[in-house]
Amino acid sequence: MRKINLFFIIFLFLVSGCASQDIKELQEVEISEYEGERLGSIADFRENSIKGPQYIDIDDYNLKVTGLVENPVDYTYEEVLEKERYKKVVKIDCVEGWSVNILWEGVLARELIEKAKPLPETNTIIFYAYDGYSTSFPIEYIMGNDIIMAYKMNGVVIPPERGFPFQLVAESKWGYKWIKWITKIELSDNEDYEGYWESRGYSNAGDLDKGFFK
Amino acid sequence: MKINIRKWTSYLALATIVLYIITGYGITQHRFMEKITFGLLTKSLSFKIHSWLIIPLLLFLLLHLYYSCSLFKRLKRWKR
Fold it and tell me: What is the mean pLDDT of residues A87-109?
């Protein structure tokens, strides 16, 4: 009888030991290769924002979709993350002469806008950032392509210095169109809207295969 | 009045190099450069000047090199 009790106690001890071994998740680590393609590093970026890095409190954060829409929408960070996720390796080319190849993960800007039901007269989509920066695109560019609003780069959450919570992955556009710290998306009928750098002499189209001056 | 071409090309080469460096900083450190120039040297202006300067810079450097070499040759001949 004593032997059985002893075995029972040992068994309980072992089981309780196993149960307490929860797997703790460590901090995400940046990846350097994706499907055989070499990636750059988050550290390869140069800090060239207009007011320095912005630190957004995610509890107070809202992504607004406003302007020429039937149904203006306010997304929380979590609501954006609930959307279907997309991944793509895209190289960012800065007008300063440097470039970085990054695996971007995020949601489609198109899907966020569709929920707000754009009005037919909309021809321009303006993105605004937390630091007052802004840039615009023709509606066809955003709605007709798979343009990602990224929240992860190289497998890790975008750090505040790089645009947390969201950076636009404006493929085939110069780096100044890749707006960081996005807070608002405005649908407009003003084709001539000029963003921060565009009003200071940069091209509004910002196409990578063309010069970046007007 | 005799113009000393060698002297002038070296002065111009120096001036373009200094301007090239300043406008380079105007691109990469635009916030700081805008502040210390009271908003005069903006990033887009820096870009424009920086890209225009490349031809004069090369020209003055080559002229400076040419006149310095010819002076060096003359000095060598004189020493003999």
Answer: 97
